[in-house]
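Help: why these numbers?

___
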Amino acid sequence: MADSIIHLNTGQNTTINEAAQIHVSIQSVSAPSPLDASCFMVNEGGRVPSDDYFVFYNQNSDPHQSVVLQHAEDLKSSFVLDTSKLSQAPVEKCVFTATLDAGGTFANVQKCQAIVRAGSQQITYEITQATAETALIFIEIYKHRDGFKVRAIGRGFFGGLQPLAESFGVEIESDSDAKSESAASVESTAPAPAPEKKPAPLNLTKIDLLKRKVTLSLEKKKVAPIKARVAVVFDASGSMFHLYRRGIVQESFERILAIAAAFDDNGELDVWFFADDFMRAPSVTAEDYRYYIDRTYTLGSKGFGNNEPKVMENVIRKYTKEEPNANIPTYIIFFSDGGVDKERKITQLITESSNKNLFWQFVGLGRSYYGILEKLDDMSGRFIDNANFFALDDISKISDEELYDRLLSEFPDWIKEARSKGILA
């Protein structure tokens, strides 16, 4: 029996105790069809080095025998990870998934769990929210310093095994390919043609990978692709400096840039910084995202306090006076660590922009006073609901999937209301 039992929620992670082997079980109590479990051993770019690093029912190990599918039944599959071999393998993480290719969805699966055991430690992650997809990413075990950690993912995926595998860079043979090979095998008298050279795989950037997660978040909500301009406003007051220095603002910027890459025709993100004064920074695309924050903004250059209205007025001016475009919405993601005190002016600006194609998503980055931002749902006098707020204790600890689900929870509904009231065509 395990001496140490840890239960993870979606997005949480924990350290795995040092052990020669890590055992992973993917299981359920009941399911409408067999649960086909797989492990994708991926590099920093989120892709397998080759198809040999896709461990599933038809290939039960990687070339190094560092991950072995040891046992597979309809409702339970077990993997064994050799930590010594895995430490040397050319991968950064192992992503454990399951599919229901024979029918049904994960909404019909009961007590769906991933269980990790290392020595006397047991880590359990149970999927508690039903998902209507036919594939599910359960957990990922990733290298961390000299050991390993596990993160609970719980993200659904439409389409079954093939699109899931292809998203990790695995090439899956189609039915037409198989038929072609079968037909070629009977042509015994003809010389075999030279094999067709396949194009090199795409060199996906971190933003490309995050962009896929944005798209998946919309697919889960059954929302069609969105066309919009995207802006981000970063609090640069003195209390935020530690987040800049730790790279958390850069990381947040990259995650928002992926939304612009998914929504904007040019994949361009507009950026502002604010303290006592503000700075409208150069717009940026995925081609030039690395070190953007450090290259662009000098801490303290616009003061140390908070003046939200001043930067909000500039944002409104850009999209209504300087570069108006009434045909598409503008999605403004506004990061603040609190200290909001100019409530009357903020209320006025949000109310006045409620008959424009501007939509404000405020995100709190601490446990400070957010004032009027916490009362947006009750703000009266607006033409349409055009603003939302949620707070995060530590944005660096929230998964990409959960962040995008929260950021995009209301934006599609705003667009529908804006169209119904003639703000958008």
